[in-house]
Amino acid sequence: PSINGIPARFSGATVLPEEDILLFTASVENDPNWIVSDNIVSSYIGIIDLNQLENTTPVCKVITKNNKAIQEKVESIYVTEKTENLINLVGVIDNDNGSSKLIEIEFKKSID
Fold first, then answer.
1. Integer Cα distance of 77 and 89 in angstroms
2. What is the Cα 48 distance to its own chain's centre?
3. Contact, 92 vs 102, CB < 8 A?
4. Is there a contact between 100 and 88 (Cβ–Cβ < 8 Å)?
5. CB burial class (10 A; 0-12, 13-18, 19+) of residue 53?
């Protein structure tokens, strides 16, 4: 995905346990130096079915808090619980300022 013509770049990934599903994070940064996280526009979480790479467009959703896009770079995710339609994750935010934080993410699983 992109915002205002700025493409999102992969920032982290994990495989969904016991499934051939890749969960990933991607961030939109309004800065040509994507290593230094100074101007984060938004972060996404996405899902790719590894069994259907040729026929699947990744589903991507903006990571929000209180219905507003977070303006932080989610660089890693870990699955804490999953049901048939919902995946609970922990995300790591590292804004390159010497501090990191964990966030809880709830992702509705939908590949269709």
1. 6
2. 12
3. yes
4. no
5. exposed
pTM of this prediction exceeds 0.70 = yes
Q: Note whether 39 and 47 are within 8 A (CB).
A: no
**pLDDT tens digits, 8-24:** 989 899 998 788 889 99
Closest CA to 111 of 52, 44, 27, 69: 52
Q: How far apart are CA 25 and CA 48, in angstroms?
A: 11
Dmax (CA) of the chain: 41
- Smallest CA-to-CA distance from 82 within 50, 107, 110 is with 107
For 96, list phi and psi in degrees, rounded to 5.
Answer: 60, 25
Distance CA 38, CA 97 (A): 9
